[in-house]
Amino acid sequence: MSESQSYRINIAIDGPAGAGKSTVARKVARALQYIYVDTGAMYRAVTLKVLESGLSTEDDISVGSLANALDIVLLPGAESQLVHVNGVDVTTQLRSLEINRNVSYVARLGSVRTRMAELQRRMALEKGVVMDGRDIGTHVLPDAELKVFLTATPKERAQRRFLELDPEAGITLDQLEKEITERDRLDQEREIAPLLQAPDARLIDSTGRTVDEVAEEIVQWGLAATRTILAEEK
Ligand code: CDP
């Protein structure tokens, strides 16, 4: 292993829904032998528990205490990352339309964001993490050595999500595009840690590009960032 492969940095990948962040981030992590952290899955896990408990997504204090009491563990799985909450695997429950429709309301609560950011920072302490989300480069890991803002046109993002959905879900492509655009609006307009490109993030528009191409570009940037740091330390 070369020096630039054994020295580890943190990589933040932010962007709107359906831009390909999780697929790309997972590939980048695999190529660099880093740990992938899907922060959206953590907000989805809290949302699942909020919906199960019947709490209002407006109730910052109660939802915050619920979030603080949850033991959320991310584990590497064969296909995707597994999410365990209080020892139970909830992975397959996290991408339902109901969670899609509520997650941005839960994610705008200050109490929830404080708790999630704390857990996420802890995961990145040892470096060697590829973390994807909305506020990673701006808020959670402002010192990440490489920041990427990944986007694509709303139409393409909706099409990608449409193909992933169960045909039984009963939602049209047009409806899905509207829902994605609405979630982006909520994420961009919230007061705390909104979805935003960090000034020092590199922008990638993934419209019409393959996952492999985009992942490879980020891997190369990661290796270059590592080489620069090593050269500066010498
Ligand atoms: O996979 P997709 O892009 O649809 O969404 P996700 O990454 O699973 O994130 C779901 C939701 O969680 C987002 O729409 C945000 O409301 C929230 N989120 C956030 O606020 N901050 C993060 N770092 C990650 C997700």
Task: Explain this structure.
This protein is of the alpha/beta class. The protein has one domain (9-233): 3-Layer(aba) Sandwich (Rossmann fold). Helices cover 52% and strands 15% of the residues. The protein is built from 10 helices and 8 strands. The protein is globular, with a radius of gyration of 17 Å. The model has no long low-confidence stretch (mean pLDDT 94). Bound molecules: cytidine-5'-diphosphate. The site of cytidine-5'-diphosphate (CDP) has 17 residues, from helix 3, helix 5 and helix 9. Residues 17-18, 22, 39-41, 43-44, 103-104, 107, 133-136, 183, 187 line the site of cytidine-5'-diphosphate (CDP).
Radius of gyration from the alpha-carbon trace, in angstroms: 17 Å
CATH-scheme architecture: 3-Layer(aba) Sandwich
Question: What is the tally of helical segments?
Answer: 10
Overall strand count: 8
User: Which parts are unreliable, with pLDDT below 50 for 5 consecutive residues or more?
Assistant: none
How would you classify the helix and strand content by structural class?
Answer: alpha/beta
Look at the structure and give the mean pLDDT: 94
Residue share in helix: 40-55%
- Looking at CATH, the homologous superfamily is P-loop containing nucleotide triphosphate hydrolases
Helix/strand order, N-terminal first: HEHEHHEEEHHEHEHHEH
Taking strands numbered 1, 2, ... along the chain, how are they ordered across the largest sheet? 2-6-1-7-8
Q: What is the total number of structural domains?
A: 1
Bound molecules: cytidine-5'-diphosphate
Distance between the termini: 19 Å
Q: Assign the CATH topology.
A: Rossmann fold
**Residue fraction in strands:** 15-25%
